[in-house]
Structures are given as structure tokens and as C-alpha cells.
């Protein structure tokens, strides 16, 4: 999408004004609109075909309308955000960091799964998000674009309609969605450590673990030392790939397990679970193409740990 696109929602419809479009040979204004939708707006072919079949494309004068907002019912039972108690005191609950008709970004507290896995009836972020729209009386069923580990806090991106979902899924696959994390790790990280490029695979001896393995998938983590303490470090991490437990595996492999991450050799002396937080998320808006940068403040519960580390109370 080479030009900035804007549109207005009219109920179930998105109204666009693409301007005068060149009519293809042997076609008319409708065919010109289809080419514009495909080549300029970037509507995936599968969705474009579905809209055509269902009468979801309309031309009226210089206005082009797409039926992108049909009512949807979430598969997840709404759970009132107010009844959820975070696992660790000081961690704030679910909150909206960004929202428009296409995208939703919410803060996921530590101790909350992104979606149900069939093994527990404990509410998940998906249930909380469903409750947001249930309480508003809106028929919206957002779909998550990426995940965070249960005990990792940070922003989670959702698509609010199928157009946004297809565009954001493609961006995720092409590594065009930027994710930056901060972590408190054990030991003093060498300032010269900037990149960890080590393949990650499953641990044959432990179903829940991942390991650095020559036969694993390529995994790249960029590392920036923010502050060094006597026996710990605060680091900023940027993912180039998105393997399961990537940051936790890579830092542990380098001798710096995350504080609190018992699965990968971390100690819970200072914190009960891994100190890993998604600091920011950046992505191109699926309609306008605008680059959005969404920040998520560090957990307040980290303040005491950082203070103790600074005062060498470890």
C-alpha cells in the first residue's frame, strides 16, 4: 500500500473515496474499483472474492463501500475484568492501550493466559476482551495476532475484523510487527553482547521447555544493556524472530536466566516469576498504513526489585 488511505465507518460498512480511477480495458467503474481494492488498499484476494459474492462491495457516485463490519459473536465467554485478581500484587489489570475500528491493543497482566488451552477454567485475556464488547453491547469478536507467555506482561495486538486480521497476520509472518521487551536477568551482561543468533528447538526431556539446538528453528534476539547491578542486569530485547520462549531460552543459554524464571534456571528469591515485560509494539495500521508505536509502562511491582538491586540488597 503506497499511499495513505482513510475511510469512515457507516454501520457495517467502510466508506472510501478513492477518487477518479482509471477504467481497465473491457471493464467499467466496478472493475476499476476492484483493481484499486486489490492493488492500492491491499484487500487479500480471498476476502475480495467473498465480498463480491456476498454483495459486500457497493459503488455510489465517488464513494466506494465495503462491508467490513458485520456483527460477530466471540467464541469466548465474557468475564468481567473487575472480578479478576492478578497473581502478583502491584500488577495492573487488563486495560486498553489503543483502539479504533480495526485494531485493539490491550495490556496483558502477568499470570494471565492469552486464550484458553482446554486445561483450566481460569479466565484468560480472551475472556476479558470479550467482556469489553459485551459490556458495550457491541457485536465484535477480536482475534489475537500474537501471544505472550502466561507470566509475561505487555501489549497484545488484536484485529477487530477479517480485513485487519488478514493484513496483520501477513505482517506478522513477514516480521513487520516490532516487539520490544525489557527484562531483569541474573548476572552482569557483557556490554558487547548485542545479538543472540542461536536456533531453538523442543527439549526432548521436558515437554514445556525449549533449548538451543542445531536442529532447531533460527532464532535471533537483539540485546541492549540498560543498567548493570552487582549481580543482575536490566536489558532491552528486540525480537527478529518469534520462537516459543525465545528470550528466556536465549538469555539462559548465555548464562543470564531471567530473575524468577525457574523453568530456565532463574531464582525466585527476588520475584515469583520471570521478570519479562513487553515494553512496546509497533505495526502499520491495516487501513491507513500509518506506523503505530504503542508503549506499555513497566509493571509497578518491578520498582521494589530494582530498588533492592540498586542498593545491593540481594
From TrEMBL:
<dbReference type="GO" id="GO:0003723">
    <property type="term" value="F:RNA binding"/>
</dbReference>
<feature type="active site">
    <location>
        <position position="149"/>
    </location>
</feature>
<dbReference type="Pfam" id="PF00849">
    <property type="entry name" value="PseudoU_synth_2"/>
</dbReference>
<protein>
    <recommendedName>
        <fullName>Pseudouridine synthase</fullName>
        <ecNumber>5.4.99.-</ecNumber>
    </recommendedName>
</protein>
<keyword id="KW-0413">Isomerase</keyword>
<comment type="similarity">
    <text>Belongs to the pseudouridine synthase RluA family.</text>
</comment>
<feature type="domain" description="Pseudouridine synthase RsuA/RluA-like">
    <location>
        <begin position="104"/>
        <end position="253"/>
    </location>
</feature>
<comment type="function">
    <text>Responsible for synthesis of pseudouridine from uracil.</text>
</comment>
<dbReference type="InterPro" id="IPR020103">
    <property type="entry name" value="PsdUridine_synth_cat_dom_sf"/>
</dbReference>
<dbReference type="GO" id="GO:0140098">
    <property type="term" value="F:catalytic activity, acting on RNA"/>
</dbReference>
<dbReference type="InterPro" id="IPR006145">
    <property type="entry name" value="PsdUridine_synth_RsuA/RluA"/>
</dbReference>
<dbReference type="InterPro" id="IPR006225">
    <property type="entry name" value="PsdUridine_synth_RluC/D"/>
</dbReference>
<dbReference type="InterPro" id="IPR050188">
    <property type="entry name" value="RluA_PseudoU_synthase"/>
</dbReference>
<dbReference type="GO" id="GO:0009982">
    <property type="term" value="F:pseudouridine synthase activity"/>
</dbReference>
<dbReference type="GO" id="GO:0000455">
    <property type="term" value="P:enzyme-directed rRNA pseudouridine synthesis"/>
</dbReference>
